[in-house]
């Protein structure tokens, strides 16, 4: 079963309001973060402070996702290599990966050209993909990432995991805001990623077989014409 995510639609009024709210929440959250840091210096052993910090971080991540969704992203496209971004992403997840018993392979097929992209945004997408893959393999497995030079000046990036897969009934809901099957999920990762890839004139496809694994294919053009 395969699915190409829907074009992210123009923000509805509700969307605009939640984006506005996300923006307004940022300031008080920054202040809370500051005082939390101070408290942690004064009471470095208090476990609840560490928990509070990690929850505040989570709130910040949700707010970041929201703001990214609401902004007409004015990206800065530079010629950049994809592979280092993937390597850096894997590095970020080294610990989480080892804890879950997930091994990772990063492979190149062909001579990969540099592509027009906003590297920070692409990395955000890769982080979301790797995170989902690891979360889908709590009992371990292999995450196979392949970067290939495709015809017509395109680059493909494939994330293939051996995780639990996606139920057919859920597949069409993937990428909807807040659709999550996880206890601690936000259900924003794929939506944000899809928006970033669209912004790069690319496409993101999800295919999955329940119990066997999930494959995400991202196809990006090497050149983006800017107005
Ligand atoms: P979140 O990870 O916070 O739940 P996402 O938008 O990243 O939000 O993913 C939405 C849902 O899509 C997940 O809750 C999960 O059900 C499904 N999903 C995404 N990636 C995978 C994957 N690699 N394997 C299995 N299910 C996945
Ligand atoms: Mg996710």
TrEMBL record:
Residues in Histidine kinase domain copies: 20-224
Name the record gives this protein: histidine kinase
